[in-house]
Amino acid sequence: MLVSCSVSKYQKNSPEQEFRGVWIATVVNIDWPKNGMDDSNKKKKDFIKILDFYKRLNFNAAIVQMRTAGDAFYPTELAPWSKYLSGEEGEPPQGFKDPLEWMIAETHKRDMEFHAWLNPYRATFDLDTLALDKSHDFYKHPKWMVKYGKKYYYNPGLPEVQEKFAQIVQEIVSNYQVDAIHFDDYFYPYKIKDETFADSITFQTYGLPDQNLEDWRRSNVDSLVKKVHQTIKSSKPWVQFGISPFGVWKNKSKDPRGSDTQAGQTTYEDLYADPLLWAEKGWLDYLAPQAYWSMDYPVASHRKITHWWADTIQSINLYMGNGPYKIKNNADKAWNRNNEIPKQLTFARSVENVDGNVFFSAKSLMDEHEKVVKRIGKIYLLPIKNPSLPSKVTRTVNPLSVESSKKRDNGIELCLSQRDSIPRFVLYYQIKDLALPQNKILIGKSYLSESENASCDFVPLSKKQANQNLGIAVIDAYGNESELLILNQN
Asked: Using an 8 Å Cβ cutoff, are 287 and 309 in contact?
């Protein structure tokens, strides 16, 4: 389904492509489902409500949590069903045969990418192990587990753990039409005072002679990232791999290469994650650092952090993570202002190398903060192309052909055909001047799945647009666009 609005209102400073994503968190039912015990119809209705809300704001990607703590939101032999989905771990959701397949289809119907969000190392969310299903790795592989604080974690230093997670990724990428695999910021756990992560024996077994514990831990995470990247690209090279690290890599006081911040914990030193290395090695397609602070927050300024990442990461796509969950809900008084998030969005556009934004989390703007939502709507006025892969494979995309067209009072109905083996979007442009078709304006897009050879869409047009020419193209998952087909709907 296609949605468009008046081109006359289009903001001239809008980029040609931009990532507009939202995290849909399922752990402890943050965003969805509202309750694991809800019936399937309510779960579906609630998920669609989230998608429709962000579709109206012209977001183009949903990052949906499919693995929260050694569990799964899809049928698999590699993990039990999540209790956050069915109410009881290991129990399949009633009337919901394959939630992941359904969610991907509904997301694509709304012309948004679907990024499958997985938590690699968190094994449990609490210490209630009696609530775990017997198929959980806590019971199947107890030697993989490390108790830390009030949770159990997979031991990142074990090769078997890395191999198991690669199998999980392989299964998802092979069986589902996901557009990306996504990790959040939970690698080694955030440090707890006076607690020790008990991996010393593993370190003695697998650590190299010249490695200290900290470097060895980072090498374990590096190995997982590299392995997952290889797993994805060997199967479907157009499927993206993205990670959302904690917003501060290192403080400048500890390392002159770090950001001008005073974060209590950092990605590199405390979570043993080195996204700068991953970007340098080309193991990722994008980074989405979680910069959930206000523009000029003294300890960690969103402004300074954004500039730091943009200056540091230039070989892959960079999306800044924003925290609308803090609006009217934080000690920092900046969040009481309705323009904090809109300021961050317009600021991101002004910084070279920033390719978009991601919001945490989905429920934060729904049914509240109407003034903020309206301001975001003015910034995200029209649909937009998703960013191309940084390591784009250049290929010729077969052009579209129009099988049939039918003009109506408020638009045009088009049936298109196109044969290409890679998933893509159909793009709808308004062409004001046939002599200058490069000045086209994107007014809508629709997802064309891997299995589809034809697609029918209704393209809504204003009276002014109806008297102008429509341009149609197709774009593959790498970002290669076909030749423009000009259609005079008159």
From this structure: yes
